[in-house]
Amino acid sequence: MVLKRLVRLMSDRQWVRTIRHEQSMLSLPFGLGYTIDITETLTALAAAGLTARVETFDRLRFDDGRTALLATPDPTTTVTDGDGGEGRVDDVILLPGGSEGGVLSLVRRYPDLVVVNGKRGRVWADGRQLSGTSMQREATPGWRTVFAIARAIAIHGGGSQSIADRIGIPLDVVRAAMPALGTHVFFTPIGWEAADRAALCDWALAAYPGVGGIRTCWRRDTTIDEQADQLIALGGVMSDRWAAQQSGVLVPPDRLTAFFAEHPDMQALGYEPATMNEATVSVVIPQDTTVLTGAEGCCADDFITAHVLYEDSWVAANTDAVNGLRQLLHFKSDLAHDLRWHPGSGEGREG
Question: Mind listing the pLDDT tens digit for each residue in 74-99?
Fold first, then answer.
């Protein structure tokens, strides 16, 4: 009886999903008819220098004459021309809450988009954040440094200066962030060491919240190796399955994530925009810039690559690769520790 009622209820709701998916007469406001308060959106826009007024229920007009459509974000769709073939000039995406990461890639791909999170007072336009605080970990502004330090100590150990040099962060910033690691690290005559190397490796892998930033997806009909070589020559730092294979982990090297400080002109390089499933390369401008400064040669360190693989999908190949990188990091940590402390290591002492 309960099952029949549930099936009937699901069937009764199908028309709602159909209308939301196929409607073309108008853009229904979020909630399918429920009113929404856009005061916070207008306030956030004004703070970013984009003062606007309400023109219709789903449209705003900026002081400079441009119009903006209020829409619910769907990062899987493509922005299309909507007004007589002339295209939308500044579509404002109203985020009712939750994760922002799913729509931020649109900002880079479509510079004419304006993305607003009124609740948090954040505004993105022209491919960058114009107003508001950082999206991730705003309550703990030093989280990037803490994780970069943890990665460095777990594998390399060393004094504060050597850690600062390794991850490209000023010495005083390293010293200020060090207390956050607490009893997980301790100081020795040759520098900082992990209290439990395997545990610190696992913590840096599992607790890391991600690189953040903006992602765009691209496709080009050449080999992944050729694409990696081209992007490395432009100063990119490689990650994903391709980087995992460079570290000796057996995984199909058919995906590439490239970190850049500034976004390259991918179309000039022969790439075309693609969905995440079709892309051969994902370009990420990371919020966590230690991904770039702490890179090991042309590839991100194995901690970052493991995180990219873990977060991007649940396929068995990625799970196996993450486990392989974890084992590799444990081995590197133990080996480096032995070389630092063994009298015949030849590594010298770090201050």
Answer: 444 444 444 433 444 445 555 544 44
